[in-house]
Specification:
Shape: rod-shaped
Distance between the termini: 53 Å
Radius of gyration: 34 Å
Strand order of the largest sheet: 1-2-3-4-5-6-7-8
Structural class: alpha+beta
Number of strands: 8
Order of helices and strands: HHHEEEEEEEE
Helix content: 40-55%
């Protein structure tokens, strides 16, 4: 896999559907898609970085080994030149050639290590840039800890009964109150995990009368799912679909 230059990063992210700034993304689903594209690119960059770090470690070891061999060859050549070690002209020429080859090897390894360090630094800068962009997008998304908090206009199907849920979310715990057409009122208790909600409807007169399961849309403003009654009455549906729209704060 060829490394992507830093000057191509903006074009790459744009091609992946990520505008230059978080403000360019108006809808939460666009922000989620952009976050996914950034996460994929960060994984690619991290893999490249890990590979180069491993290569640099290996090249650095080879460089130090080559430096040690060259130092030994220098010592042997110096001893031969000074007469400390007897040698023939042919042996001196052979040792000179060996020193030249060792110098070339050390120079090549030094250049290779320097190129890897530049690539590692560039990769780290790209990862930091992607992390900064991802952080800005995350700050613009609704917090998972308060995604459900607010007032929801609810419609029960197939009878088209209407009402409202007022929910308060704390982590994965959801609680609240409801009121439905016909004077039905009571409390709601449940959980919210991985975008899925489970609510137990506790009626003020009937007790635990209904369970609702559903999922939240990417925009954070729509809930859809299935409901099931536990209090059976003649001619009434015992299960069906439900949908809820979150009110704007000023309308709650």
């Amino acid at each position: 896999m060829r490394r992507i230059g830093a000057f191509l990063l903006a074009a790459l992210v744009a091609a992946a559907g990520v505008p230059a700034t978080a403000q360019d993304l108006k809808r939460p689903e666009e922000q989620l898609a952009a976050l996914y594209a950034l996460r994929v690119q960060m994984e690619v960059e991290q893999k490249l970085l890990d590979d180069d770090l491993l290569k640099h470690q290996r090249v650095a070891q080879q460089r130090e080994s080559a430096r040690g061999r060259l130092r030994q060859l220098y010592d042997e050549l110096d001893d031969m030149v000074s007469g400390k070690t007897p040698s023939t002209p042919e042996e001196l020429d052979q040792r000179e050639a060996a020193v030249g080859r060792a110098e070339q090897e050390l120079e090549a390894l030094t250049i290779q290590a320097r190129d890897l360090r530049i690539r590692i630094r560039d990769s780290q800068e790209r990862i930091q840039l992607l992390q900064d962009r991802s952080g800005k997008l995350k700050r613009n998304l609704p917090s998972d800890n308060e995604a459900l908090t607010g007032t929801w206009d609810v419609t029960y199907l197939p009878n088209n009964d209407k009402g409202s849920f007022t929910l308060r979310q704390s982590g994965t715990i959801v609680a609240g109150e409801y009121s439905l057409e016909g004077g039905w009122r009571g409390s709601l208790q449940g959980t919210f995990v991985n975008g899925k909600i489970l609510l137990h409807r506790i009626d003020s007169k009937l007790g635990h009368s209904q369970d609702l399961e559903g999922t939240i849309a990417p925009d954070g403003k729509t809930l859809r799912g299935r409901w099931q009654n536990f209090i059976l009455s003649g001619g009434q549906a015992t299960s069906g679909d439900w949908v809820a729209q979150k009110r704007d704060r000023g309308d709650s």
